[in-house]
Specification:
Layout: H1 10-14, E1 16-32, E2 45-46, E3 53-68, E4 77-88, E5 95-104, H2 107-117, E6 121-123, E7 126-132, E8 138-146, E9 150-159, H3 171-178, E10 183-188, E11 191-198, E12 205-213, H4 215-219, H5 225-228, E13 233-253
Parallel strand pairs: 5-6, 5-10
Antiparallel strand pairs: 1-3, 1-13, 2-4, 3-4, 4-5, 7-8, 8-9, 9-12, 10-11, 11-13, 12-13
Length: 254
């Protein structure tokens, strides 16, 4: 098996933007593929796990910009929430990410995102409040804000190690699919862009839901209201640097 977390080539690293990401929570739902097909451009195929289902995830994190990876610059804090699903990258034929919608808490970072990447992000006011025990475990993780309705996500850590995750045959394939893809796609007007990133292999902790209210997922027709509170899994990454290779390349026209 070829793992997705491979070292970024030096020329790409020079042109990369670094972001320091903390308290990354992945709230994932296993759904029928027909719920997501209308969001996907024709150039991309869904990364189904059993021929009929695929995952959609909420990814929530606290971040700081760090400018060009090789040039120290002031760090600007922001919080971000993404609704994303998983597709097959036609270049590598491996699972990758397709961003359905993205929200950012800071107005300035929202502007920079749109300007530098063309990604259609929305200014979304919300806060992330993690609490840790003395041993570093997340005793409570709380997210609340407004994004097409008031949303709340509360979780708590139940294990520092992911031992198994159905329907994946092993932990490595689960991680590679859900949290380790190094390629993402997003629409920029009538253009589909392909974005490459790099990060070290991620080692997730396992959480359980305490409370989830997220009306936007139901409004989009992705996850019915009575299923939102019952995700397939919740994985948490305490910290990782991300290198984002810019500019995102034009992949296809929509």
């Amino acid at each position: 098996m070829v793992f997705y977390s491979m070292v970024m080539a030096f020329p790409k690293k020079i042109l990369s933007i670094e972001m320091l990401l903390r308290d990354m929570l992945y709230v994932s739902y296993l759904i029928p593929s027909d719920r997501i097909s209308r969001f996907l451009p024709s150039a991309l195929k869904p990364a189904m796990v059993d021929g009929q289902h695929l995952f959609v995830s909420l990814v929530i994190f606290r971040g700081k910009t760090s400018g060009a990876a090789t040039i120290p610059t002031p760090r600007i804090p922001f919080d971000q929430v993404n609704i994303r699903t998983y597709v097959i990258d036609p270049v590598t034929e491996k699972p990758s990410v397709y961003f359905i919608h993205c929200g950012i808490s800071g107005g300035l970072i929202t502007f920079f995102y749109r300007t530098l990447s063309g990604m259609p992000v929305e200014h979304t006011p919300f806060t992330i409040k993690p609490k840790k025990a003395k041993d570093g475990a997340y005793s409570h993780y709380d997210v609340s804000g407004r994004w097409h309705g008031i949303f709340t996500i509360e979780a708590e850590e139940v294990s520092s190690t992911l031992a198994a995750l159905s329907p994946f045959p092993n932990v490595r394939e689960a991680i590679d699919y859900l949290i380790d893809p190094l390629v993402g796609f997003y629409p920029d007007g009538r253009t589909l862009r392909r974005l490459e990133v790099y990060h070290d292999p991620l080692i997730p902790r396992v959480c359980k839901p305490v409370k989830i209210i997220f009306p936007y997922l139901s409004q989009l027709g992705i996850v019915p209201a009575d299923e939102v509170a019952l995700p397939h899994s919740m994985l948490l990454i305490p910290f990782t640097p991300f290198l984002i290779y810019l500019p995102a390349r034009t992949f296809a026209h929509l």
